[in-house]
Design brief:
Layout lengths: L9 H8 L4 H41 L5 H27 L39 E7 L4 E9 L4 E2 L6 E2 L1 E8 L4 E8 L14 E6 L5 E6 L8 E4 L2 H8 L4 E5 L9 E5 L10
Antiparallel strand pairs: 1-2, 2-5, 3-4, 5-6, 6-9, 7-8, 7-10, 8-9, 10-11
């Protein structure tokens, strides 16, 4: 047996000296400690083995499922069968003839959702409305003649001070046999045309299409009204109206200066008697 030098504390030496079997006591203590250590090592080994098995089991669970390809194949087969059945049902429905309903008054078109118009009903064609001179006619029984008025209203209007409101201008070419024939009249729908020979401002300026402005002197009506005036050179004014589509008239108005009124027609004046 190999001797081992150990250093024991003094108090323990004194304790062992009091015992007859000191060596046995020391050997038993060491042997018990050894046995405890060996038992502890065995328990640690068992726990390590159990942990390894758990890890392996968990890793096994993480592996791909061997049944997933089979399930995928089964799903594809079921999906294909379902699509075949769906297509068959659609074809069956499309081949079914619709039930005719003879009680309806209207027949419905395959491509439209509105009722079709019966063939015997004529469809009216819309005609584009042209801007032209407005004609009015009246029979003069005393003169056995026909009175004719041709007029156009200005495209623009102007705002007047109270008590007046917004005003348009109007050009009228009139034929009345009892008054000597043709007249050219300028009028406004509201306000007063202001001009007299004493102030030398009883005139209008007229521009036909792109021509130069022309001065036309005017006379006041015999009844003294201020809403209209008569152009003196009637024939010249009417001749220009028969050629122009755009007319501009500058008119002197009471306390409103000389505003310009614009007229447009798609066709120049074409005189009519009916």
């Amino acid at each position: 047996m190999q001797e081992t030098k150990l250093k024991i504390d003094d108090d323990l030496v004194e304790y062992l000296n009091t015992k007859q079997d000191a060596e046995k006591i020391v050997n038993d203590i060491i042997r018990n400690m050894k046995a405890n250590e060996e038992e502890s090592l065995k328990k640690d080994a068992v726990k390590a083995d159990e942990h390894s098995c758990e890890v392996q089991g968990s890793e096994k669970d993480l592996k791909p499922n061997d049944m997933s390809p089979k399930k995928a194949l089964l799903f594809m087969i079921l999906f294909t069968v379902g699509m075949i059945l769906l297509v068959s049902m659609v074809k069956s429905c499309s081949n079914t003839k619709p039930v005719e309903n003879n009680s309806s008054e209207f027949s419905w078109s395959d491509t439209d959702s509105v009722a079709t118009v019966p063939e015997e009903t004529p469809v009216k064609k819309t005609v584009e409305n042209k801007i032209s001179w407005d004609f009015q006619f009246e029979t003069d029984k005393m003169m056995s003649s026909k009175n004719v008025w041709a007029s156009i209203l200005s495209d623009n209007s102007i705002d007047l001070d109270p008590p007046y409101h917004s005003a348009n201008a109007k050009i009228t070419v009139r034929y009345m046999k009892k008054f000597g024939g043709y007249d050219a009249i300028i009028s406004i729908t509201d306000g007063q045309i202001y001009g007299n020979e004493y102030s030398n401002n009883n005139y209008i300026l007229a521009r036909f299409d792109g021509g130069k402005p022309i001065k036309y002197w005017f006379n006041e009506p015999s009844d003294g009204s201020s809403e209209s005036v008569f152009i003196r050179r009637t024939s010249d004014f009417i001749a220009h109206c028969k050629k122009a589509k755009d007319i501009k008239i500058e008119i002197p108005l009471f306390e409103s200066g000389r505003p310009v009124f614009e007229f447009h027609v798609d066709e120049p004046l074409k005189w009519r008697t009916e």
